[in-house]
Write a structure and sequence with these properties.
Elements (H helix, E strand, L loop, with lengths): L2 H14 L5 H22 L1 H6 L4 H5 L11 H6 L1 H4 L6 H14 L9 E5 L9 E5 H15 L8 E7 L4 H4 L6 E7 L5 H10 L3 E4 L1 H12 L9 E4 L6 H11 L4 E6 L2 E6 L5 E3 L4 E9 L4 E8 L7 E5 L2 E5 L12 E8 L4 E4 L6 E4 L1 H11 L3 E10 L2 E8 L3 H18 L6 E6 L12 E3 L4 E2 L2 E2 L1
Parallel strand pairs: 3-4, 3-5, 5-6, 6-7, 17-20, 18-19
Antiparallel strand pairs: 1-2, 7-8, 8-9, 9-14, 10-11, 11-12, 11-13, 13-14, 15-16, 17-18, 21-22
InterPro entries: ANL_N_sf, CapK_Type1_Caps_Biosynth, CHP02304_F390_synth-rel
Organism: Metabacillus sediminilitoris
Protein name: Adenylate cyclase
Length: 447
């Protein structure tokens, strides 16, 4: 790891990118985008071909005129899109072997290989150079680290897979300990008690389990900062975790495509607009629900330009008290795959329900609910798993009424609701409390 690059990026992020206005930020982004477009036109065969008829737009730095890509396009053109000549077959072979052996240290030359979880429907591979790893680490530490860079920190990182990218955060004063979510849960108790981490980074399902262990006195830890990653953070989890550990729960929006957002000092999630430009494809502008189209102007090995994610984000309508001009989010609402559907009354037209509608109905139903999962199986059938403190039958009836009211409010035919005991535990798979497992097609799109 290039420690000098890490420190340089830390200082730049911490002290030189404190933009005072949106105009200043936009000017910075335009310069970065112009430089990135010039780079990809010289080094990426895919983008050279893809943008062949858009030279005028590139010359004018008119990003919005360029075509959009997604994961399927990126993976189909992986060999020609990346700028270091790595073949998808070789990258996949190394990444899959790492998953099987649980040894994530091997690289292809100076390039680290990662494998996405495939929750958006197809598995992805990402490439990061040693320099990009150091820059990523410096940026992450600048945005997330409590105190100063050289303060002693012990970081506990709970994830499905380790990667050289994450290892770059370790140095003489900062130790990094990976907790493999494939391991049996009891194995983590002894390790985390012994480590006594100052920072914990984990999916909310694992953070909730840590909070439960803390309440049951199975563990006794006092972290300075807790950061939620990888799964949708829901209010039912946030309240418990913050209450048990007596601190604000922070959040990171990190995916295969980049380090997209992090919480500020006030606990509000902001897009990292010093790293990426986000265009909004609104699904409901009044409610601020949009799908992000991102352009990352820091990644050279595997350039990401006008890349449509599969996530549902909700923008914050009021400015953040921290004063940052970076786009603030109310929350990450889930994935486009998590939208619910229903027949409109007296017709065969299809209406949609956002995941947040389902989430709010559950919260309003009862404060006795400890855990839940709501799954749409068909247009006419919803499966609901509940774990409650007491009065299971009464709570189930209340949930049924609240969900039915949501369908009725949006003039949709109320589906049958089938209740089952809650049987899910934290695991290596991403937890989804709201999921759509339908296989019907609407407008040619499988949902």
């Amino acid at each position: 790891m290039n420690k000098l690059e890490l420190v340089k990026q830390f200082l730049i992020t911490k002290f030189r990118r404190n933009f005072s206005s949106i105009e200043e930020l936009q000017s910075f982004q335009n310069r970065k985008i112009k430089k990135q477009l010039s780079f990809v036109m010289n080094h990426s065969p895919f983008y050279q071909m893809f943008y062949h008829d858009f030279q005028k737009a590139i010359n004018n730095n008119n990003l919005s005129a360029l075509p959009i890509i997604d994961k399927s396009i990126m993976m189909n053109h992986f060999d020609d899109l990346n700028t270091v000549g790595i073949k998808k077959e070789s990258a996949l072979k190394l990444a899959i072997e790492a998953e099987r052996s649980r040894d994530f240290s091997p690289k292809l030359g100076h390039i680290s290989i990662g494998l996405s979880s495939g929750t958006s429907g197809n598995q992805g591979v990402f490439l990061v150079s040693d320099k990009e790893s150091a820059m990523w680490a410096g940026t992450v530490l600048a945005k997330l680290l409590p105190g100063k860079l050289f303060d002693k920190q012990k970081i506990a990182f709970f994830l499905r897979a380790n990667n050289n990218l994450y290892r770059t955060t370790a140095n003489g004063r900062i130790s990094f300990t990976f907790f493999d979510l494939f391991d049996d849960l009891p194995l983590h108790i002894e390790r985390i008690n012994k480590l006594q981490p100052t920072i914990i980074i984990a999916p909310p399902s694992m953070l909730r389990k840590l909070a439960e262990w803390q309440m049951d006195e199975k563990i006794s830890i006092r972290p300075l900062k807790i950061i939620s990653v990888a799964e949708v953070l829901e209010e039912i989890d946030r309240r418990l975790i913050e209450t048990v550990f007596k601190q604000t729960l922070h959040q990171v929006y990190q995916c295969t495509e980049g380090f997209l957002a992090a919480t500020c000092s006030k606990g509000i999630l902001h897009i990292n607009e010093d790293l990426v430009l986000v265009e909004k494809e609104y699904l409901d502008k009044d409610k601020g629900v949009f799908v992000p189209i991102i352009t990352d102007f820091t990644r050279k090995t595997q350039p990401i330009i006008r890349y449509r994610l599969n996530d549902l984000l909700i923008e914050r309508k009021t400015s953040c008290p921290c004063g940052s001009p970076f786009l603030a989010l109310e929350r990450i609402d889930g994935r486009c795959d998590d939208l619910f559907y229903g027949y409109k009354n007296n017709s065969k037209e299809i209406g949609i329900l956002f995941p947040d509608f389902i989430r709010r109905a559950i919260m309003l139903a009862s404060d006795l609910i400890l855990e839940y999962k709501v799954t749409q199986l068909t247009l006419d059938l919803i499966e609901i798993k509940l774990k409650v403190k007491a009065n299971q039958e009464l709570v189930s009836e209340s949930v049924k009424n609240e969900l039915g009211a949501i369908w009725a409010h949006h003039q949709l035919v109320i589906p049958d609701m089938h209740f089952l005991p809650y049987d899910l535990i934290p695991s290596a798979s991403k937890r989804k409390r709201i999921a759509n497992e339908m296989r019907e097609q609407f407008d040619g799109k499988i949902v």
